[in-house]
From TrEMBL:
Pfam families: Peripla_BP_2. The keyword Coiled coil does not apply. Keywords: Signal, Transport. This is ABC-type transport system periplasmic substrate-binding protein. InterPro entries: ABC_transptr_periplasmic_BD, Bact_iron-sidero_bind, TAT_signal.
Length: 366
């Protein structure tokens, strides 16, 4: 298999990644779509990657990075690991911002076939190579090395969750920290700075929304297994970007306080009786982001209310059961979900962020 890219240089702590990303250049917009000079961007665990042009065609692992690309004004990725977990409807209320995912490829189809990367022929793979090796099937370290050397480098970090045993010797990034790294790779520093300022404004607004710690509700975050769920995967509120909206709203972690093992470590579901033992004041259910609030009420909340054990959970009795938000969040989607959850938890009915400002940033009108 032949590569069309020329090796130049990179310094890296891994052997899985070590190539220059060579990309097509646009004579009309060299600052945004092409570069006159080689430049370097860095991210753990990959290290420094040299580029001889700004990447254009890209693939990524999940909706966190895909949303970062949207925020930076990039074209959508050609592929993500699972397209059904990239919830593009979060953009519906933001004027002029949308993602057509009809042609987007799922990298995971009964495993990840290395040949799929060759067919996609991307300029950059925004994927943590360690995640790809340890968490997906049908692909080996040798495959990853070949993809990085023959097609394009890897440039990603598994920041959405902080629980994997193999992730013990390199740093995680915050949501904005990861965005800053991606902005360096795509030479979109101006949009990064604008998004960072927007997030600072949102955090300032939250100061008047979130109660004192003692007054924040004891909240259980669980993944419901199907409609009318009777089994649940319990999550402690971790440090990854997938829990940012929950952390920012100050809730107390009912699962952690109960001593029930986190699903990431136990890989074990709990039943409704155990949920009753936890007895949270608020129940956040993940896995239902494809449903509207009304559909969620009909398919999930109503059956819980009718269940002999689940119906006695404080959150269910009081009507404090809500969609928990997607696991993969970027700088735009986390604002959408934080605003939604602030309304659910605290009755906040304002706008946490300026939607037109988001649209302007995405469009480059900074």
């Amino acid at each position: 298999m032949r590569t069309r890219r020329q090796f130049l240089a990179t310094t890296t702590s891994l052997t899985t990644v070590g190539l220059l990303a060579g990309c097509a250049r646009s004579p009309d917009n060299t600052d945004e779509r092409g570069a006159e000079n080689t430049y370097t961007a860095s991210i753990a665990p990959v290290g420094d990657v040299a580029f001889d042009g700004v990447p254009q065609r890209w693939v990524t692992s999940n909706g966190s990075w895909a949303d970062m690309g949207v925020a930076l004004g990039l074209d959508p990725p050609a592929a993500v690991t699972l397209t059904d977990r990239y919830h593009t409807h979060y953009y519906d209320d933001i004027p002029g911002v949308s993602v057509d995912d009809s042609d987007m490829v799922s990298l995971y189809q009964d495993g990840v076939n290395p040949e799929r990367f060759y067919n996609l022929d991307a300029d950059i793979h925004v994927i943590d190579p360690n995640f790809l090796e340890h968490r997906t099937e049908n692909i080996s370290q040798a495959d990853i090395e070949d993809i990085g050397s023959r097609i394009a480098p890897f440039f990603g970090n598994c920041s959405y969750a902080h629980h994997y045993e193999w992730h013990d010797d390199y740093r995680y990034y915050s949501l904005l920290g990861a965005l800053e790294r991606l902005a360096a790779a795509f030479k979109r520093r101006d949009r990064y700075e604008a998004i960072r300022a927007l997030h600072a404004d949102a955090q300032s607004t939250l100061e008047s929304v979130v109660p004192a710690p003692a007054d924040c509700p004891a909240t259980a975050v669980v993944w419901g297994v199907g409609d009318a769920p009777t089994e649940f995967y319990p999550y402690t509120i971790g440090g990854g970007t997938g829990f940012k909206h929950v952390r920012d709203l100050g809730v107390r972690d009912a699962v952690a306080a109960s001593g029930v093992p986190d699903f990431h470590g136990s890989r074990t579901a709990i039943d409704a009786e155990t949920l009753l033992d936890i007895d949270p004041e608020v129940l956040l259910l993940r896995g239902y982001e494809d449903k509207t609030a009304a559909e969620f009420q009909d398919a999930v909340v109503s059956p819980l209310q009718s269940h002999a054990a689940a119906g006695r959970v404080t959150a269910v009795e009081n009507g404090d059961v809500y969609r928990g938000g997607g696991l993969y969040q970027g700088p735009i989607t986390t604002l959408v979900l934080t605003e939604r959850l602030a309304g659910d938890l605290y009755g906040y009915d304002g706008e946490l962020f300026d939607r037109q400002r988001v649209a302007d940033i995405v469009a480059g009108a900074i």
